[in-house]
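Sequence of DUF2293 domain-containing protein (Phaeosphaeria nodorum).
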Amino acid sequence: MYSEITVPPNAPMPQGYAFLPKGIAFKTLHCRKATREAKKPLYVVVDNKRTLGLRAPKSIISEIHKKEKETLTTRRAAVQKRDDSDISKTTAEIKAQFPKMPTTERDLVLKHGFKKHSRRVGRTGTLTLKAKVRLAVVAHIRHKHTDYEALLRAGMPREAARVTILESVDTVMRDWGCAQGHPQRSDGKKATKQKQVAKRKSPRKPSKVSEHEVIDDEGDSDYIP
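Predicted 3D structure, token representation.
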């Protein structure tokens, strides 16, 4: 009868079983499915709360390895087709929101903000494409067309730095054809209040921030406008 049993890596290997390392989603998924259909126990190998892989019947794992190789070309083609479709849709959305945006700038946004497995805003599944494009472009402008990174290196708090360069971001957005500009800039009262708060915040003592750290900062929460 099928069941999933958690075992440590030093547990004895059941007779007729073999180990399938974690790492290839296709193999893991089909190993689970085939073992379930065969109504055999599946052993999940865990070490200090970290899953290392699966123990399943040798015949099933052997078949999974074979199937993975046979379907690799087809699966890669399918992934490429989906990627091409995503890029096409994203490019169209960028052109719709920023019709005057230079092609070189658009390509940089696509390459960086929408890079696969980057966990950046362009790859999140919780936002609409319209929102992802706007946030990715704002982040690109912030880092490449303002003094934002220099302000961070000088010790200015992140939120204060964002308020300081808000007008610069808004200007570039409008130059690129975004009629409404930055949403916070459009809200006069909100923008004024943010500026007042930023002025009251004195910069921290300058700290050494490497280029690598600044780029990492962009890849996560820094995509929030």
